[in-house]
Design goal:
It is a single chain. By secondary structure, this protein is mainly α. Helix content is about 70%, strand content about 5%. Strands 1-2 form a two-stranded antiparallel ribbon. Strand 1 and strand 2 form a beta hairpin. The longest helix is centred in the last third of the chain and has 29 residues.
């Protein structure tokens, strides 16, 4: 999630300590499970998908109890993709989405959101299944998105300036967007040079594109929250809000990167 610009002075970084500790803890757990891969990382993604649907239903004010059946369906959809059955995973996610649309009062939002979440977590799982570069591809993606977030956080707070899209996300600035994209390009290029060492300039470009997509995903989630009058998707992660708040950018980036990877038949970070 791209950070908002804050007030001048020491108060600009009052949440930095909590954000850092939460991010490091969550990152260490995710890194360990992605390194193990297989059903370990698939289980992590399934739990994340299910929890994000829970938060989405809370944002949209879904009240129908039978709508909760979509939560295990979404988790199952992500697990199915681990068995190299992506199309069946998407079908299962589609069933969950249709169930929400049929059962919930704000069903279109929750249904489409559930399908989006399945696609995002399934994309991450699909990237990890590459036997050669799976772990590095996921690590590169997460690193670039984090760099975009960090650049946006410090760029927005230190530079400030013109707002990016005040009606949707009042705190975000153009300076934060630019700082996030530049840092992501630099970190992505350094990651490629330190691992495969191939086409570093091309990887820098695709890292910058990934940062833009990630920040667009952040704005998309912010727009949904504004639509329903919610400030955060939840309080699961101190300093970050809910899981949707933390994974909004990564979700959008994962879908685009997976699409590029599968279309090319090769990981994008070794462009």
């Amino acid at each position: 999630m791209m950070a908002a610009a804050g007030p001048k002075g020491a108060g600009r970084f009052t949440d930095l300590s909590r954000r850092t500790s939460t991010g490091l803890t969550l990152g260490a757990l995710a890194l360990a499970l992605f390194w193990l891969g297989g059903w370990w990382s698939a289980a992590l993604l399934a739990v994340a998908a299910a929890w994000m649907v829970v938060e989405l239903r809370q944002i949209t004010g879904s009240e129908d109890r039978l709508g909760w059946l979509a939560v295990p369906l979404v988790a199952l959809a992500v697990l199915v993709t681990e068995a190299s059955l992506l199309r069946y995973g998407l079908v299962t996610g589609g069933l969950a989405a249709l169930w929400l649309i049929w059962r919930d009062r704000p069903g279109l939002w929750t249904g489409l959101g559930a399908l989006y979440i399945v696609a995002a977590m399934g994309s991450l799982d699909g990237l990890r299944t590459d036997p050669t570069y799976g772990f590095l591809a996921v690590l590169w993606l997460i690193t670039v998105v984090v760099a975009s977030d960090v650049g946006g956080y410090f760029g927005g707070r230190l530079i400030g300036g013109r707002k990016l899209w005040p009606r949707v996300s009042p705190g975000k600035t153009w300076s934060g967007l630019l700082a996030g994209v530049i840092l992501a390009a630099l970190i992505g290029a350094a990651f490629s040079a330190a691992t495969t060492g191939t086409f570093v300039h091309e990887v820098a470009s695709v890292s910058a594109l990934t940062a833009l997509v990630a920040q667009a995903g952040d704005l998309l989630e912010s727009g949904v929250k504004r639509r329903f009058g919610a400030d955060d998707s939840g309080r699961l992660l101190p300093g970050h809000g809910g899981l949707l708040d933390r994974l909004d950018g990564l979700s959008a980036a994962a879908i685009v990167v997976a699409a590029l990877t599968f279309a090319r038949g090769q990981s994008v970070f070794i462009w």
